[in-house]
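Example 3.2
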Amino acid sequence: MSKAEILIIDDEPQLRKLLEINLESNGYKVWQAETGKEGVIMAANHPPELILLDLGLPDKSGHEVLKELRTWFNNAIIILSVQNSETDIVSALDNGATDYLTKPFRTAELLARIRSGIRRNQVLNNSCLIECGDLRIDLSSRIVKKKDEILKLTSTEFNLLAIFAKNESRVLTHQFLLKEIWGVGSQNETQYLRVFVGTLRKKIEDNPDQPKHIITESGVGYRFM
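Structure, written as tokens:
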């Protein structure tokens, strides 16, 4: 089995070296770039399974690099940055980041996010049937089962669940979800989202008050586990 390839775009040599050692010891093949321009060229010439992207690059903003990559690169992109404001996090997620980790971070958490990102690639590229714990979501037939029992979901509830499931472990912002489900003109109607997340939780969670699937990321959005 070939090793999953990860591209690191970061201008800190010490961090790149540390990441390389940890990632290679966990079975990944690592490529490195220290500028945004170099990273985009490397990704275009040899697309990796996942990109680790810093926002503070010497030649251009990581936000610009993210936008450029997302015009053609569909695999996971995880942001690693010292920038920890809600504005930066929401902007990166809205522009297509799969996940966001603030430096310094724990290696074990990064590895878990990487595994989730690569699983997400596989779901998006290969499967119409998604299994999440006791849930089975058939995207082609639009049938959802919990412990082999078919759930009765409205069209909107199914569409919302499908977006969550296809982006497992990725933080999805309120604005992203509203745009995907109700269109651009509804991006400020957060009450729509709260209502449908609430009804969806009642149908898929064992305990809607302590959800294990749809997790709230305060002030940002939701993460599906």
